[in-house]
Amino acid sequence: MVEFDVRRHVLVPKHEVMPPEKAREILEKFRVSPHQLPLVKASDPVAKAIGAKLGDIVKITRDSLTAGKAIIYRYVTEG
Amino acid sequence: MAGVSADTIRTEVRKLQDVLPNSVVKELENSLLRVSREKAIMREQLDEIIEGVKQAYIDAMVEPGEAVGTVAAQSIGEPGTQMTLRTFHYAGVAELNVTLGLPRLIEILDARRTPSTSLMTIYLNEKFAKSRDKARAFAQEIEMIAVEDVASQTETDLINMEFVVTLDRARMHQKELTPAKVASAIRSALKAEVVVDGNKLRVKPEAPTLSDLRRVAAKAKGVPLRGIKGINRIVVKMEGDEYVVYTEGSNFAEILTLPEVDPTRTITNNIHEIEEVLGIEAARNAIINEAIKTLEEQGLNVDIRHIMLVADMMTSSGEVKQIGRHGVSGEKASVLARASFETTIKHLSDACIRGEMDGLDGIIENVIAGQPIPLGTGSVELVMRREEKVGRE
Questions:
Q1: What's the CATH architecture for B335-379?
Q2: With B188 labelled, which of B34, B131, B169, B372 sits at a CA distance of 20 to 30 A?
Q3: DSSP 8-state class, residue B18
Q4: CA-based torsion, B118, B123, B124, B125: positive or negative
């Protein structure tokens, strides 16, 4: 029985951990503090799979039905 | 005079990528290329078209301060009035019972732990998907069979202090089980002594007390013999060029680990299970898909942007939150807003006891206070012209 990699599922969009400099750029671009971003828990299966740690910012590239591709960011919190 | 070449169209249109969403850029590119094959497009015309599309997109955007939540609520709520109130339908899959219509929509938005009818759609990997027999065999294997499914009669014998299960021969044969197998399953699950007596199983509790006998009697019927917990009824159906297994009842985590299953496409209609197994983003997608499916099935057309907004709100905290009659659960910070809804006195007196403050940040608070509401143009408090400030330095 092989552990299934959740990232391969059709419902799961692409997640990436942002390097700190990039993350700062994004916060400046939107003029927000990390807590104003949508959140993702550190215990989230995908967050675990990509090795996101507390305080990281995760870039998510969604397949949007309206925009084709949409990029959003989530801030990794406890839980 | 010749028009612009296909390459020019491509490079010019792709410059828009930072301004316009991907799908608009692609659509524009494709239609320009199609037209240019029949009719030459001049350079000025191309510039004008691109500028026009850009402007049209910007004009169509939601303005800052617009009450998108209220618009979404109306846009989903009104069609909701036209939905069936009847819960059960046998739609889509033959024989399977699915909750549809308004009850299902409410269930999705309420983020209920367990939907009233769980349903899984299991896709199989190549080896199993093409063969009817293999798909059937797999379905048989995962269907949960408990003792009560193969018993024709059960009784509690108080004189001999035992619980007697009479097995149904035909059903036992059909499920390929023997009395000995059933006996050993009960023995290991309940730690009770089981005597096989022809077609009867006599289950004796460890200690011959009435309470132990009752415990055994209550649990024996539910002892699983085979299959996966939670998977109750199964239908195998041809879809496209492959066999797909539909199940009533759901156990997402366990099904995904089975080697026969294609784990990348298999889904459940239980949003909480998806959240647990695949994470918050998958749950967002599941909410959108389920809501659209429910609405479309009723012949209603709701712009998906409204549903996407709802799904975004429900998942923005990192876990699926319900949207009930108090809004997105527990988000209302204002005392006055809460008091204006229900049990006014209780909310006000509680707030007094706790010494709560109200910053008058919301709509209702400001209506009560007789001030402009923070919405649309009212949400702007101060505009500073940055150029001027920079210029003076």
A1: Orthogonal Bundle (1.10)
A2: B169
A3: G
A4: negative
In the numeric block, the tokens 């299953």 are attached to B261
Compare all CA atoms of chain B with the CA of A15 and give the residue at the minimum distance.
B281
How far CA B214 is from CA of B28, B104, B164, B189, B218, in Å, comes to 72, 38, 12, 15, 6
For domain B145-226, give its CATH number from 3.40.30.10, 1.10.357.10, 3.30.1360.140, 1.10.3720.10.
3.30.1360.140
Write down how long chain B is: 393
Please list every residue in chain A whose beta carbon sits closer than 8 Å to the beta carbon of residue B259. Answer: 1-2
In chain A, whose CA is at the least distance from the CA of B286? Answer: A11
Hey, what amino acid is at B347? H
Q: Which of A2, A3, A10 is the best mutation test for B, with the most CBs of B within 10 A?
A: A10
Sort residue B271 into left (φ over 0), alpha (ψ -120 to 50) or beta: alpha
pLDDT in tens, B288-331: 999 999 898 888 889 999 999 999 999 998 999 888 776 676 55
The Cα B272–Cα B265 span in angstroms is: 17
ipTM entry: 0.93
